[in-house]
Amino acid sequence: DTGVSQNPRHKITKRGQNVTFRCDPISEHNRLYWYRQTLGQGPEFLTYFQNEAQLEKSRLLSDRFSAERPKGSFSTLEIQRTEQGDSAMYLCASSPPPRTSGSYEQFFGPGTRLTVL
Amino acid sequence: AQSVTQLGSHVSVSEGALVLLRCNYSSSVPPYLFWYVQYPNQGLQLLLKYTSAATLVKGINGFEAEFKKSETSFHLTKPSAHMSDAAEYFCAVRGESNTGKLIFGQGTTLQVKP
Question: How many C-beta atoms surround the C-beta of residue A63 within 10 A?
């Protein structure tokens, strides 16, 4: 079991640049979530994929944010024209189908820490 | 709307003392509740979960939590703190939509003094 992996672990960028993060979920987990965590706060939900379909997006996900999950495997989260307020830890989590995990337990990756200068 | 409130952003205990981290939730549906732990610069690790079975839930590393519907609480306890328990702890409730998203509290930082 390799767990959920995220790359890169750290990203420093200048304001206005575009960044892309990748998440590789646990194999056979068809559910994938992105969360954002700012310093001293709990994670906040951004978006949810079931297989390749993006089924829910938070109001936190502005037009500058886009997420994809082609073929229902890995997922990418892109932020365009980054702003200093985007600085945060971006967490990815995956979950197996409810029939095997009726509690919707989520397994988290180590996160990507974004710093926008 | 669902929400989670963790009382006390910082809790400090001595090694060997009881750990009590408080969590209250709001939910219009029977809740699924979780406690996660986060060590510095790491992701979240599940400690335990409540899924409408036994109200006293045992988790990893000696932690347990009790679901009390009348108090809308799900407090986390451990009889004897270890130095390695120092971390940030998050309580979460499953969202009402069928996506299974989690709604987290703001977290409690546990400090363990020698």
Answer: 7
